[in-house]
Design brief:
about 300 residues, mainly alpha, two-stranded antiparallel ribbon, 15 helices, globular
Length: about 300
């Protein structure tokens, strides 16, 4: 990556803070807008508010990627569904000549907007999970084609129709590896990371917990326990640290188990849970007026 001036570096970090995209994507978007932060952010907003023409020259947008169409075997012929999906993918590429197999930030925002989605909807995370997006605001050709081909959704109307299924299944708590909640929750950690990160800043993690664990996502509440409110209060007032992958994934397990049994009869201090969750259990019990030793047996699980 070329060196940037201090002012440009500041703009990049500010853009990442607003959009949560990786550094290379932020730099590209800012460069396209002459390093004007407001204009770069407005360009993303406009992609959702209006159906703007595809970025790049018409020649670039029509440029096919022969390598992908041919695949590893040049003699193989793509199915009609694959051809349709590749053509649809090409429509949203930001830079067809330099990055023929990638949809960048602006193209991704336009695509999600054309699906009728808002970034404030948790189903956006489910869609990006199905398409194996490497990070927020980016799509790869392989993930896009393979993801939609699996659901037999090779055109926009069918893809829009499939959103109702994702919306229906995302709020269902399950640890089954194929469940929409499990897959989306697990992949969201990867989506939320920016370049070079291995942990999520606490404020970023809190926003994703809010998005995933409250309606219209999964409702992390039981008749006598406002789990999500207590969790966010604990994180911001007691924990105050970044969230690593283990804490993120084990929290997903904890969420499902607490919905199955809010008394935490499955909990044991001897279980292989992160210290963050050990302390959270003590926090919840103190709010309930329970003794430290109350609870049953159970082990931390891998989500």
């Amino acid at each position: 990556m070329p060196a940037h001036t201090p002012t440009q570096k500041t703009a990049i970090q500010q853009f990442i803070g607003i959009t949560n995209v990786k550094e290379s994507a932020a730099a590209k978007q800012l460069k396209n807008n002459n390093w004007n932060l407001q204009n770069a952010v407005n360009a993303i907003i406009m992609c959702f508010g209006h159906r703007t023409p595809a970025v790049g020259s018409p020649a670039d947008q029509d440029l096919p990627n022969a390598r992908f169409y041919q695949g590893s075997n040049a003699s193989s012929t793509p199915s009609q569904a694959e051809q349709n999906l590749n053509k649809l993918f090409d429509k949203y590429r930001d830079n067809a000549r330099e990055e023929p197999d990638a949809i960048g930030v602006e193209g991704c925002m336009r695509y999600l907007g054309d699906l009728g989605l808002s970034l404030e909807e948790p189903v956006v995370l489910a869609v990006l999970t199905e398409l194996e997006a490497p990070t927020m605001g980016e799509l790869t050709r392989k993930g896009f084609v393979d993801g939609w081909k699996k659901h037999r959704a090779s055109d926009m109307p069918t893809q829009i129709s499939h959103l109702s299924s994702l919306r229906q299944h995302l709020p269902t708590p399950s640890l089954a590896p194929t469940s929409t909640f499990h897959r989306t929750y697990r992949h969201t950690f990867r989506l939320a990371l920016t370049t070079g990160q291995r942990t999520l800043p606490l404020d970023t993690a809190v926003e994703y917990f809010r998005l995933l664990l409250a309606p219209p996502g999964l409702a992390w509440n039981t008749p006598t326990t406002p789990w999500l409110d207590l969790w966010l209060e604990y994180l911001t007032e007691k924990w105050k640290k970044a969230i690593n992958k283990d804490v993120w994934e084990q929290t997903g397990v904890f969420v499902v188990k607490s919905l199955e049994d809010e008394s935490m009869g499955w909990w044991s201090e001897e279980g292989a849970w992160p210290s963050c969750l050990d302390e959270f259990v003590a926090f919840v019990r103190s709010r309930r007026g329970e003794g430290e030793g109350e609870g049953g047996e159970g082990d931390g699980m891998v989500l």
